[in-house]
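**User:** You know discrete backbone vocabularies at least as well as I do. Would you mind producing a protein record, from residues through to fold? Write it directly below this note and I will take it from there.

**Assistant:**
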Amino acid sequence: MPRRESSPDNCVCGPSSAIPSGFAIITGLFSKWILLGNHPAGQTNLLERGNILNISGTQSTFDSAAFLANAGLGRRIVKLEPKDTFFSQGDPADTVFFLQRGRAKLTVVAQSGKEATITLLSDGDFVGEESLAAIPGLRLATASAVNSCVALKITREEMIRVMHDEPTFADLFLKFILTRSMRIQADLVDQFFNSSEKRLARILLIMAEFGKPGERDTFIPPISQETLAEMIGTTRSRVSFFMNRFRTLGYINYDGRIQVNKSLLNVVLLDQFPGHNAQKPLLPKIGDDIKIVISKVETILKPVVPIVKTVMKPVIPIVTAVRRKLSATAGD
């Protein structure tokens, strides 16, 4: 049976139904390089060399790092200042950005005007990958710079071409999509099951890039407490309380810029708060307070007790007689 070759249109623009961002690319790549035809004899397994995609035994000469570092056909370098936007919610989804340097954030605005921060981005991340869906549409979120950013702006057509023609680049992009998917799942679990204090600790660690290889700058980019509150789903006053608490416990340093210490990992990984119970009132202290209150009440009532006894003295025999009469009536 002759082998059927796939076209670029079959890879990305084939289905007419709406496909989530990134998944159209993944489906197209697997249909082109994995699902169609038999692998030649002696070809290594797809994951044997640590790559997700591998379509031939020949060594690729394509340099993904150079492609993402330099301008060229269908791509150009853009520079953004803090609060500048890469794209806005509702814009046509026709480009992909690769963040070379700086930090950015994705935000969504509801019809009521309420704004929510979805995620934070750092250098090495792609943003706007929803433009590679089978049917290009409109942007679902706004991407804006947190600090000074440098990014590579790639047109949708050029991104699709290099994805089809260069498997090493497709492998890199697929790894990014899978990592982003795992991050989103972790965010959902964090939102559903962890306390707001623990969610704040996790966000601070992510912003400080703990867990990534190499020496990282533990200072996080400037960010408002309102933005942190939006990300973890709580109020600004609660974020302020938690930040002061983290500083008191030595988890962060705050003097103009926020510096995250490694000890904050204990909050996320081990759920440990040294001195956490120290803020709770101690029972012995409560008992001492009650004793003081009782002593003061006795002091106030002490001169009143003799007066009450004097007033009640002629009433006691009357009450006693009434009780006896009621008892006799009940006995009859």
